[in-house]
Structures are given as structure tokens and as C-alpha cells.
Amino acid sequence: MTHVFHRNPKISMKTAVSGKGIRLFDSDGKSYIDACGGAAVSCLGHGHPAVIEAIKQQLDTIAYAHTSFFTTQVAEDLADFLQQKAPGSLNHVYFVSGGSEAIETALKLARQYFVEIDQTERRHFIARRQSYHGNTLGALAIGGNVWRRQPFLPLLIESHHVSPCYAYRDQRENESEEQYASRLALELEDKILELGPSTVAAFVAETVVGATAGAVPPVKTYLEKIRAVCDKYGVLLILDEIMSGMGRTGHLFACEEDGVAPDILTIAKGLGAGYQPIGATLCTDKIYDVIVNGSGYFQHGHTYIGHATACAAALAVQKTIQEQNLLANVLQRGEQLRSELRQAFANNPHIGDIRGRGLFVGLELVQDRESKKPLDPAHKIHAKIKAQAKENGLLVYPSGGTIDGRLGDHILLAPPFTCTQEDISDIVSRLSDTVSQVL
Ligand code: PLP
């Protein structure tokens, strides 16, 4: 009997007792390679001394001060860092405690912006069918994950969905990436026209789709074309980089690679790398100025926004990434990971696609490569792989079942940015053994 509600009583769950580098250890002394950083969180691995020291120092000075009374130097410094690195004019940073809060902040920010400029009709959010944006009611409403939304449908704000950018499944034969991107942009435009352009507030998308589809990057020009459609109708573009941002793809902000800057951008997970819970919503000068020069303040807030200890952890994480030039390692090790996975699974008909950017890598499982038919969901292969991998001392983050009305089993890999060449080969070898044991 457990009193911890979020612990699944049907699954025997070991107690994690320590972590060092890419490894976690349980109370039996068994070690696990953390190849997914939980849910793409632990980008510096575990027990990082510089981050721990920064947290301790912050606790020795000021752990927390409520934002209605004070700012703290560390929150200012972290905001400066993000503002300097962020693309476009994303110069204003609203700190929160996690991903879902960052999304709620983004939705409310978009809505308040339009209220301030007297476009109060703008209330519709458009997102994509294959997406996850969090579990709070606003985030759930825009997410495409049907089964997650189902019990709460009567409570959710109205939202609308278009197709994801999912080349493996949806790009047609004889269609170039650019033509595919144009088709998706047209679909978004049609949806805006159907709803009435003056009623649409924002389009929300994950720059690289994470948990629902296993690291699916957009095809070339997709984000550019989407940006152009949004601009044409005065619709804000919100990019969710809660999973894909903060260096996971080899760029601090994933959209840098696409040469596109959104109006609002959300980050979390890798920002604090799991050392403290922290997320943030960044917005442009345009949005900030309208609100500050209008009613004067953003009608939002949580008790722990700008939490000093969380900001100290995040600042230390980000400084470490910069000082150790870890993004170069992310790009190099990511290439190695995809290449070794392709070799290891070259003759396995069930690995349909291997994809991703940087150290954000997904494998899609199928019945066979030719038909691309999904595996029978009743077999819950993704869950079996997760369990078997754990047995084999490897933590991976699978997903499966019905997402976006489609079936699909995926494995997501998101190892720490500090991974060595040997670590990557070890991950591939353990995963390869695991897949042969299960399939
Ligand atoms: N957005 C994306 C893309 C995510 O992957 C997640 C979490 O997995 C969230 C939002 C929600 O973040 P959190 O679980 O921190 O609330």
C-alpha cells in the first residue's frame, strides 16, 4: 500500500536512491543508464557538482522571495541570459514552475494581448492533432492527445486542431518536403478562414514533437510557411519547446535551426535539468509593450514564479552548458546515436523510422517497413520495451496506444548532453538487446 497517489500501485516500483552522471541507482544497488533523462529533463545527468553548489549558495543567501515584494538578482540574471540567446525579439521572460504552467501562461498572454488591443473576438486556439502541451485544463484543451482529454471534455476551452507535420506517415509519394510543408500551411490557413480570421488568437505547435510521436522534427520550410500564414491573419505563433528546447536539439532554442522566431515561446524541462522545477514563457517586445502600456500588468501569477533557488539551479545548468560547449557534443553524439541505431536495427523490420535532432531521438515501431502498419495496441509493446529496458539497466521513454486517432508505438531517447562516445554505444547495445527480447 502506497500513500503516494501518483505512484502506480500495479507496477512494482523500486526506490531511486542516488544518481551520478548518466546513471541512476536504486535501493538494491542496481544501476541504470538514464537514456531519456526522465522525460527529457536531466540534460546534465545526475549529481552535477556545479549545479548543486549553486543551489546551496542560493539557499545560504535567499531561497525565496515573493515576486509581489521583490525581484532577485538570480532571476534577473537568468532572464538576461535567456533574452540574449533567444531568437527574434523574445526579450521578456515569465518564470513558472513547469511546462504546463508555461503553456497556461502563453495562452493567457495571447488572450490578454488581444484584449488590450481591442480585438476581443480573438479567442480560438489552433493546435495540432499529434501534440502534447501539458495536463492542466488549458494545456489539455489544446493538446491533441484524445484519451488524455476525454474525461475532462466538458471542462475544456474550445480549441481546434490541424494535421501535425509528420513526414514519415503523411508526406505523399512524389511530394517534396516543400510541397508537403505548403500543403500543411494551406490547411492551417483554411482552418483560420473557417473559424474567421478575426476570431483566432494563436497557433500552438511543438517545434519538434516529443512524447506523442517520438522526436518528430518539422520538414524544411514548414515553420517558415506557418509563420507566414500566422502573420497574414494577425494570429500569434506560440512554439512549445518544453521538451525540445534548451539545447536538446543541439541549439539552445530548437526553432533557431528553422530560422523562425515565434511571438511566444515556452520552455521547461532542460532549463533546470531536474535540479529544481522551473519553466518559462518568453514573449516579444510587441506583446510586452502592449500589455505594459495598456492595463499595465499581465493578469497572471503563481506563488512560486521566479523562485530564486529554481533560478539559481537553471542559471548554473545553462552556464555549464555554455562553458563546456556541450551543444557541440549534443550535435556530435546525436549523429552517432542515430547512425549506430540505424546500423543496429538495419535488419529489424519492426523499426520503421529513426529520427530526431541532436540528442532528441525517436524510433517508430511498426509491423513491417513496407506497410508501416502500427503494431497491435493490445500488445502494449512500448510498455514492454520500457520494462525490459529497465531490467537491462536502461531507461527509455516510450509512448503508444491511440494518439491523434492513430495507433503508434514509439521509443524516445534523450540522454544527457555530457554523454561520451562509449555511453552512446552502450545505450544502443542495450536497446538493441531489449528490442530483440521483446519483439
Ligand atoms: N509541453 C510539452 C511539449 C511537453 O513534452 C510537456 C511534458 O511532457 C509539457 C508541455 C508539460 O510539461 P509539465 O509536465 O512540466 O507540466
UniProtKB/TrEMBL annotation:
Q: Which of UniProt's keywords are assigned here?
A: Aminotransferase, Pyridoxal phosphate, Transferase
Gene3D superfamilies for this protein = Aspartate Aminotransferase, domain 1 (3.90.1150.10), Type I PLP-dependent aspartate aminotransferase-like (Major domain) (3.40.640.10)
Q: Which GO terms describe its molecular function?
A: transaminase activity
* UniProt-listed InterPro entries: Aminotrans_3, Aminotrans_3_PPA_site, PyrdxlP-dep_Trfase, PyrdxlP-dep_Trfase_major, PyrdxlP-dep_Trfase_small
Residues spanning the signal sequence: none
Its domain of life? Answer: Bacteria
Q: What protein does this entry describe? A: Aspartate aminotransferase family protein
